[in-house]
Amino acid sequence: MKVFLKVFIIAFICFFLIFNGLVWGFNYYMKDNHVGSGTVVPVIEEGQENLEPDEIDELMKIVNESSRINFVLLGLEGLRSDTIMFVSFDPDIKKIDLISIPRDTYYPRAGYNGIGKKKFNSVYGDHGAIGVKTALSDILLDIPVDYYVTVTYSGAESIINSIGGVPVYISHLMDYEDPYDDPPLKIYFEPGHHVLNGEDGVKFLRYRQATPGSEGVSYADGDLGRIKAQQEFMKSAIKKTLSFRLPSVVTTAFKFVRTDINLQDAVVYATKAIGLEMENVSINVLPGEPKYHGRTSYFVHDIEETRNLLLKIYGYEEDTDN
């Protein structure tokens, strides 16, 4: 019996060390490999809108009392984040809230004075995914951004294919061509119902405007129109995903993304999301409007309305007794 116990204990320790070594290696190599340089230092400009201290305290109080897990989803086009989404999951009530962040959101940083550098989608190239977490938390009034998830075009293709494509309704002719892209890009979709595979799904998500002279239709409100189309695609993809076993979908997706969520936590969160219904998925856009700074158009977010949206997401109920 003593010999058996000794062998069992030694075998168990060996298994434990090997297993933990594999998990450590997996989690280590899942990190995004673009680190960037320096820390994000936002520029406080003269006349910039600010909240009152009691407004900030009220928001932070309900955030600190919440068990929500927040992360930023980045769809990457080289060193620029072509798609940016804040995703907040409440495991207690099985609810997901998303906020699309326009890529042209005005975000000036100390030491980065070029025109393009004042747009939020340039943060990733300069500071990596960790820097994006810091910058997004700043825009969202210090709401914590716990994790990042980055995915490239090829990764998005694979994930879409893994769930059997995504059904979408396309309301207008999409016709765009860029022979200088690598590889050359051709987007063409007739209006109507489609089930888009990975390659076509990525093309749909990338579409912004028609090629001049073609019969294609550009989004009337530019990048905001593109965001709305991306949100509809995401709703359809989430609905399709919920028909699968969610933990297995997360495990599959891990092959194609880079993230600082470790595998153990991802499976735990996915397990907690089992039973999630589409009516508990809310998709929003960062409040604000396009404005010009000099000769360049940016999207300038509204701080007060951003606070109101975050209060709503975190379930704040105004006291009507007073």
UniProtKB/TrEMBL annotation:
Source organism superkingdom: Bacteria
Domain Cell envelope-related transcriptional attenuator residue range list: 80-241
Gene3D superfamilies assigned to the protein according to its UniProt record, in alphabetical order: LCP protein (3.40.630.190)
One Pfam family cited in the UniProt record for this chain: LytR_cpsA_psr
Signal peptide residue numbers: none
InterPro entries assigned: LytR/CpsA/Psr_CW_biosynth, LytR_CpsA_psr
NCBIfam families in alphabetical order: lytR_cpsA_psr
Family that this chain belongs to: Belongs to the LytR/CpsA/Psr (LCP) family.
Annotated protein name in UniProt: LytR family transcriptional regulator
Native source organism of the sequence: Alkaliphilus pronyensis
